[in-house]
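Could you help me review a protein record that somebody else here produced? My question to you is simply how this chain folds and whether the tokens agree. Thanks in advance; the entry in question is below:
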Amino acid sequence: MGLAYPSMAAYNQTPVFDSIIEKRLLTNNLMTFHYSYNENTNGQITLGYIDKSKYTGEIFYYDVVDKYYWTIHLKDILYDGKSLGLCAGGCKAVIDTGTTLNTGPTEQLRTLLERIPVENDCKNFDIAGKISFVFGNEEYQLEKDEYMLKTENGAEKQCRALMMPLDVPQPQ
């Protein structure tokens, strides 16, 4: 993700990272986050450099398109490799390290959820497809166990999509 440094600040206070940038305290104006799938492994925030031991593959950078949020252009959303037509007029995606759920406008989210065949009792979990978010020319896939929460209590199973409707009004 490209890093211009848009920030949200309350009460006219300068956010910490903006202050660090203004004072030129870092070699590179970078902030990276590492989350582990394993609860027993610590996460990490790194300032000024990228810890190459925390990822594999290539890093791609995207322009920030909203100066108040970490918002980038979302080209498309796919289910099992097929476009759902949700970004025909252009979409924006807020990349937020502190959000647990994938959120989206109610109608578009409903379209996506209707494609996922999984029932609340986890029926059809094994045949659920991949959800892909397309940024630039890159496709970022989520497997079913990355967008579905499956819990078992004895013989009882429950499945829930890790998604929530969020309707953001147009700016006034």
Summary: The domain at 1-60 is CATH 2.40.70.10 (Cathepsin D, subunit A; domain 1).
